[in-house]
Amino acid sequence: MRRRLPEAVLGVLWILPALVLIAGLILYPVAYAIWLSLFDKHSFFPAERWVGLGNYARIAGDAEFWDSLWKGVVYAGASTVLQLVLGLPRRSCSTRPSAGGPRSARSSCSRT
User: Fold this and answer.
1) Range of the domain at 72
2) Whole-angstrom Cα distance, residue 76 to residue 69?
3) pLDDT tens sequence across 1-58
4) Which site in 18, 21, 42, 104 is 20 to 30 Å from 85, CA atoms measured?
């Protein structure tokens, strides 16, 4: 007689390939980028020099970095607000539930 694995174990086994992909395609490059940020390294030459947190200290005092960061935050915030302001009214005009049930949606902004 064959013994069955518990559902929790089967669930973990089923998501294991996805977890391996996430680790390989997302977590490893992020960790490697953080590791590289601790070195003074040129892209084309193998020589590297350990600087530790020196790169972070250098950009913390750079006015151009803070200006660029602020512009990125403003852009991200403004584009999100703009998407909400334009998208929510459009979505609410596209469909609404009708008396016929959830499958028979009709436009709430049309004249018919």
Assistant:
1) 63-93
2) 11
3) 688 989 999 999 999 999 999 999 999 999 999 999 999 988 888 899 999 999 999 9
4) 104
